[in-house]
Each structure stands twice: as C-alpha cells, then as structure tokens.
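Per reviewer request, we include the raw input and output of the structure prediction for the construct analysed in the revised manuscript.
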Amino acid sequence: MDPMTSQDLADLKTAKQLLEHPSLAARVADKIGMPIERSLAILPVKWQDKIQEAAHKSIEKAVEGALKTLPTERMSQSPKNGLHKILVGTTGALGGFFGVPALLIELPASTVLMLRSIMDIAHSEGEEIFSIHGKMACIEVFALGGKSQADDAAESGYFATRAALAKGLTEAAAYVTEKGLTGEGAPYLARIIINIAARFQLVVTEKVAATLVPLIGAAGGATINILFMDHFQDIARGHFIIRRLERKHGQEVIRRHYESLA
C-alpha cells in the first residue's frame, strides 16, 4: 500500500466534514429562519405510514433504476450537481403546492433524480458505477443520510452504518449477479431495501415536517427539495472520496485515519 500523502489526508478531512455535517432539519431551519421541531412534533401519526410507504417505494424505484436502467450513456467526469438541484427543485415545488398527499408521487421522482446525481459523483471519484458493487455503493448513500430509530450513538457513525449494511449489500449483489432481479435473489434485495428505507425514512420525515411550516408553499417546497438534494450530494461526495482512498490504501488504514481526525 502507498503511504498517505498530504493530499490524501486533506481529502479524508473533507470527506469527514461532509459526512458529519448538520442534519437536513438543521439545514432547513437555518435556511427558513425557524426550527422544524414543532412541525415534527405535530406530524399526524397517520402520516407516518404514508411517509414509510413513500420512503420504501422510493428506494425500490432507485434500486430498480440503478440495476436496470442507469446509467445508459457515457458520463461526464464532472458531476452535474447544479442541474440535478434545479430538476429536484421543480418536483419539490409541486410537492410544496399539493402537500403531503403528493408525497407518494413526488418523492420517488426526487429520489431517482438524487440517484442519478449520486452516480455522477461516484463516477467523478473513480467508482466503477457500471458494476453491481458500484451500483450498490450508490444505493448505500441513501442509508448514510440518516440513522435508523433502532440505532444508538455507537451504531450510527459512518463506518458503523456501512458495517451494518455490508453483509446485506454483498448478498444482494451476489444473487442479482447470478440470478437477476427475480427468483431466489429477490428476498435478499427486499431485505436490503427495507434496511436502507428505514434510515432514509428519518430524513424524509424531516423533509415532510419542513413543508408543514406555515407559509412554505410551492417556493418553500422547491427550496426544501434543493436542500434535500444538497444533503445527499454532500454525503455521496464524502462516501466516494473514502471509497477512492480505500482502493488506494485499504479500508482499515482509512478508518484509522478517519477516526483520528478531530
């Protein structure tokens, strides 16, 4: 293994800052000038099922898109982050105008757009996104954006979350490679979708709560969706910087340096 260079250490520090940046709720609160905790507290219980359904459906669509259709053309080395924010802002405007009832339509569309942006970022960091393992690494980003309700502080860090998902991602990748998306591989794929959706749902809940802030409307919905995209773009960049460094130095070396950073 090559020794860590000063540039490698600088990249690793950038990755850690991106992966440990403020939550979506904190970003939204900073942007709109008020906290969303009150909206989270008054979110009707009956909506939780809708949010869970929307999160699960969105991850299903993202997995299907990653494994079946994306990407289909030669991709640029520079990710089109700005374009993807504009597109997802449009879907957010519709969601903000129609409210929670539009979530089941708007969220899957936004999630597929985020997946495409994640794949762009992965490609720019040298990830082989045409391989099944590269595609699974892109899907993994949705789980890194928020922790599960079952997680405790020791289980919610970046490397801990990756470790928790690793076996399921490996099994799903192996069975999809051998048998495709149906048949015996389907249960493994379904299991990893459930695990990723459980973490993704927490961020989606914050997104929905933000839209309940008075006077948000369509313009606010667009802003929230852009922040939503920005949140996952940052996580994707941090994740794929680390994967690039792991390919060069090995996972244990990078994890040790990562944990030693202030």
